[in-house]
């Protein structure tokens, strides 16, 4: 009996439980992905404006598996692949999230370590406050200003319901900080505010009941955002339940503007902000705080007796009223 010769056909390889395809960490680079801006987040689905163009049909997308649990919020610039027609029952994939230029963050409370990103890549933060019904609160405005400066956004203070009370006393509190203060009335169109928002991405933030949704309806007739009433104890009810980016009319040069209507908030925690973040947003103060001792809160005596900002005032390089306005905002961090 001759000896049998074996070849590769006699060898059997049992495939593993996960198949025989070798694993790889290489992922496609999706160089052909089309850029888009996220306009709405709803239960694992993201509505996107392709190329940030408000005239194109919105596209519904899901997060690609390779992104894992990467957070994606309204305003994020993302890369899309798949069906981008925007037709009903179609679904694209988000395969890339671009670095954020600005971020509006908040925590539920000052001792809450978990940061919540409200809006990404907004150029302006419009702080909406009613001058009456409910009464205005400087504490909330100050906290929003801190969050804006820390996140790289330019603040705009919008005082609503000026037909019910004089807005100037409250507006004068913030004149020294050199940012726009706009006053609106319910019986007049918000022309000045519309001019500030044109061609930019702006986020609206404020307490419930101050008139954010009413303001959006005035800026964008036909949108019909739900509005509510203020209760007898001076608190509004939530009518906006999720952040939503709405397109503004195009400017003469073809620039797209967006306004992000955010849910009303009861509090605005600042656990993620340091005392240096606020003055660093001002050109005339950023260099001055470099001479402050380590750990300086920039509040002046008695808390910070060696703060360099006081020396600037003595030298005539900083207006006392401007420093007082800055320190009132910084108190929100304590």
From TrEMBL:
Family matches, as Pfam families: RsgA_GTPase (PF03193)
Domain of life, per lineage: Bacteria
Alphabetic keyword roster: GTP-binding, Nucleotide-binding
Skewed-composition ranges (Basic and acidic residues): 1-13
Coiled-coil portions: none
Region (Disordered): 1-33
Name of the protein this chain belongs to: Ribosome small subunit-dependent GTPase A
């Amino acid at each position: 009996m001759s000896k049998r010769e074996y070849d590769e056909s006699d060898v059997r390889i049992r495939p593993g439980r996960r198949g025989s395809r070798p694993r790889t960490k290489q992922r496609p680079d999706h160089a052909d992905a089309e850029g888009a801006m996220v306009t709405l987040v709803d239960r694992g689905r993201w509505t996107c404006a392709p190329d940030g163009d408000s005239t194109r049909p919105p596209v519904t997308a899901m997060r690609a598996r390779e992104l894992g649990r990467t957070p994606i919020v309204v305003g994020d610039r993302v890369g899309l692949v798949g069906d981008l027609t925007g037709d009903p029952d179609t679904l694209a994939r988000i395969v890339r999230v671009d670095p954020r230029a600005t971020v509006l963050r908040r925590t539920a409370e000052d001792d809450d370590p978990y940061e919540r990103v409200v809006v990404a890549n907004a150029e302006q933060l419009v702080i909406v406050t009613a001058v009456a019904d409910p009464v205005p609160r400087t504490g909330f405005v100050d906290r929003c200003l801190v969050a804006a400066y820390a996140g790289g956004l330019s603040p705009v203070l919008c005082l609503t319901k000026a037909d019910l009370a004089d807005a100037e006393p409250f507006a004068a509190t913030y004149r020294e900080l050199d940012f726009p203060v706009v006053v609106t009335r319910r019986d007049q169109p918000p022309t000045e505010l519309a001019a500030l928002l044109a061609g930019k991405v702006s986020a609206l933030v404020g307490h419930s009941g101050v008139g954010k949704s009413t303001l959006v309806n005035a800026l964008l007739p036909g949108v019909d955002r739900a509005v509510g009433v203020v209760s007898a104890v001076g608190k509004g009810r939530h009518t906006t339940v999720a952040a939503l980016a709405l397109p503004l009319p195009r400017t003469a040069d073809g620039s797209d503007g967006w306004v992000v209507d955010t849910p009303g908030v009861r509090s605005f925690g600042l656990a993620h902000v340091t005392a240096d973040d606020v003055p660093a947003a001002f050109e005339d103060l950023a260099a001055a705080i470099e001479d402050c001792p380590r750990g300086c809160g920039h509040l002046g005596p008695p808390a910070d007796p060696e703060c360099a900002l006081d020396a600037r005032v003595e030298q005539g390089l900083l207006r006392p009223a401007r420093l007082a306005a800055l320190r009132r905002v910084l108190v929100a961090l304590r």
